[in-house]
Amino acid sequence: MIEQGDIFWADLDPVRGREQRGRRPVLVLSRNEINRLPLTVMVLVGTGAEHVPERFATDLLVTPEESGLPKATVFMALQVRSLAPRRLGDRIGRLAPDRLPEAWQCLRYLMGDDRRP
């Protein structure tokens, strides 16, 4: 079962333009009611923190200790996507529930809500 806060490996190919490509970690943000259907799953795509020298209000830094990821990862609201569940591979881990509001804030900021947490 796919649940909000889960972190999976996902195959994002094929892509276009500046979309993140290849096998990437993704953080599931869609509600569990949606995830149970599942038609599509809304995710934030992650990349290694070493590739993000400048952090934005749309970025969520997650450490290996809190996520199960092999290295520090930045989940980018600028790379929000709806994926078919079949794109999801192995479950890596789960973001702590108390960190989910930070991810939601990244999305709100992306959409025009300039309030900082």
Give the radius of gyration: 13 Å
Tell me the count of domains: 1
CATH topology: SH3 type barrels
- Largest sheet entry: 6 strands, antiparallel
Looking across the biggest beta sheet, what order are the strands in? 4-5-3-2-1-6
What would you call the quaternary organization? single chain
Mean pLDDT: 89
Q: How much helix, percentage-wise, in residues?
A: 10-25%
DSSP strand tally: 6
The helix-strand sequence is: EEHEEHEEH
Keywords, please?
117 residues, alpha+beta, SH3 type barrels, 6-stranded antiparallel sheet, 6 strands, globular
Description of the molecule:
This protein is of the alpha+beta class. It has one domain: SH3 type barrels (Roll). The chain contains three helices and six strands; from the N terminus they run ββαββαββα. Strands 4-5-3-2-1-6 form a six-stranded antiparallel β-sheet. The protein starts with 5 loop residues before the first strand and ends in a 7-residue tail after the last helix.
Put the structure in a nutshell.
By secondary structure, the chain is α+β, with helices and mostly antiparallel strands. The protein contains three helices and six strands, in the order ββαββαββα.
Present the secondary structure layout.
Elements lengths: L5 E6 L11 E6 L3 H4 L5 E8 L10 E4 L1 H4 L5 E11 L4 E7 L5 H11 L7
Antiparallel strand pairs: 1-2, 1-6, 2-3, 3-5, 4-5
